[in-house]
Amino acid sequence: MPRARPFSTLEAGEITMSYLILARKWRPQKFSEIVGQDHVSTTLSRAVEKGRVAHAYLFSGPRGCGKTSTARILAKVINCENRSGGEPCGSCESCQAVAAGEHMDVMEIDGASNRGIDEIRDLREKIGYTSTSGMSKIYIIDEVHMLTPQAFNALLKTLEEPPAHVFMILATTEPNRVPATIRSRCQRFSFKRLEFSEIVGQLEKICTSEKIDYRKDALQLIARRSDGSMRDAESLLDQSISASEKVIDIELVRSVLGLVDSAMVSELLRAVSGRNRSEALSIVNRAVSSGLDLEEFFLAYMEGLRSLLVISVGGEGAAGWLDLTDSEFEEFSGIADTFRVEDLLLLFRSAVRSFDEFRRTAQQRYHLEALVAEAASWDSAVDISELIGRIDSGDTGGDGGGGSGPAAGSREAGKKSAGGKKSRKSGSGPQSSTSKAEAVRVKPETRSGERAGNTKALAALGGREEWEKFLSKIREAKLTLGIWLMSAKVMQVIDDKIVLGFDGRNRFACGMVREAKNRRYIEKHLEDCFGKKFTIDVVETDKPGSGDDDRESKDEKPAKKNVDPEIDKMLKGNPMARRLVEEFDGEIIPEKDKKRRA
């Protein structure tokens, strides 16, 4: 039986081990070749020029951004025999040995594999020996956050007072896991995630040098997929080159990497915009039939929602914030016009909440179908500050009573959907649960302004109107605190003390206002509004309604409402509507009465 030939002697055209992957071939060898980290490379180069190289460094940042490459260049320049300014020559014996990973005095240690105290003790024992070449010894510890607490403690003394010929460079992706005692003994450099344009530029440089025919949109897709990591981008490019025949185009990249076509994502977003559940489910079925990774499809949908949100907020200026081609930006801009920002926030939060459950389920297709069907049934969101404004003005409106309800009013004031109609088609989304009772109307005599508290107590603050102005300023400055404070009643004002009362239905609000930081915040605004220092005392009243206007008798009980049994039954299934009726002493306006009043 003939003996197998070693790879190095195989004939031309056969598999060899001589091929060097792009990530290694294009690893930077000088500070000037490092991409996207000028704040680091410039500082280190100047430190070398001035002879001010520190004995210990901590390089932190995301994966693939150049931490280890920078550490090797620093190790190279420290021992370089013929360095030019702050750069290594790259041609001397020492530089070539470091580049090949064969320098006896440059030790790279993997913190994940050598994380115990015994390994660090061994390092401490050897660190005192002189270097083999008579120059400096450099220790590079990668993923240093993986060391055990005992190992970190053993490393402390060495970091604080190392021998004069020893330099230590620590690298980590999680600097928060490195003890403060270690961080304080190092010069720290934070590496940033590489920008989209920086990665694309480097990929173009590589393709040009390697004589690879490419299309720019294909490299842009690779750069987007790399998530700020140059190493990942170069590996993905390598993979695409291997699969290509003549040219690297966007279809090849999508096929090789299993990425989702942006056109499919935009179709899904248009279906959601038009509340077309059938079309949304059809797109999911196409994704499954084409063999796409459903997790990738879900992430692409979330990325699409994020792009719409950024475009809605930033307008034309958002082009520089998103990693989109010009045609993709134009496409998403058209879809963004059909949504309000609040609607996109609602859809995005729903997708984020569902993602973890989606990843855990064994039936990802079913989960995704339910998600897109629900998304395509969206209804316009109402900003809470807008709702508060309606409550303050006594206008909670309805579908036909004035067009200011949360569903209809928002859509009428908003932009048209992709189908060109302002209102939702019947059956294309969840039906309103208030078909019998079209609106909840707040009685004028029981609005928040009338529930502010005791008339005599309010008079000491300048009257009810002044207190309302104060509440309005609190809401503008700190919305949630303002909402909690709205449910309080001014029970007493004694000298510089204000007693606020909360009834039993508002225990949560009472507890939040009672917190020391919130009390201090309220007291500061009281002084700003009324020109006098006040302290507040927060109490909980015995029963709902106590502490109301002193014009009302405490013994007087509200008359029981004569409510249609069908409406009462409906409210049992709609806690939000019941809460509004109870909280604001509202009344239900049936459909027939609403038409008559209109």
Polypeptide structure, described:
This protein is of the alpha/beta class and 598 residues long. It has four domains: 22-190, P-loop containing nucleotide triphosphate hydrolases (Rossmann fold), CATH 3.40.50.300; 196-257, Helicase, Ruva Protein, domain 3 (Orthogonal Bundle); 262-375, Zinc Finger, Delta Prime, domain 3 (Up-down Bundle), CATH 1.20.272; 454-540, 2-Layer Sandwich (GMP Synthetase, Chain A, domain 3). The protein has helices spanning 22-25, 38-49, 67-78, 93-99, 117-127, 149-160, 180-183, 196-209, 216-226, 230-243, 250-257, 262-273, 277-289, 294-314, 326-336, 341-360, 364-375, 384-393, 408-413, 455-459, 464-477, 479-486, 507-514, 516-530, 565-572, 575-583, 591-597; strands spanning 56-60, 106-110, 137-142, 166-172, 187-190, 213-214, 247-248, 437-441, 489-494, 497-502, 535-540, 587-590. The strands form four sheets. Strands 2-3-4-1-5 form a five-stranded parallel β-sheet, with helices on one face. Helix 2 packs parallel to helix 3, helix 5 (117-127) runs parallel beside helix 6 (149-160) and helix 9 (216-226) packs parallel to helix 11 (250-257). The longest helix is centred in the middle third of the chain and has 21 residues, at 294-314. The chain is extended, with a radius of gyration of 34 Å. The termini are far apart. The model is unreliable at 1-10, 396-450, 545-563 and 594-598 (pLDDT under 50).
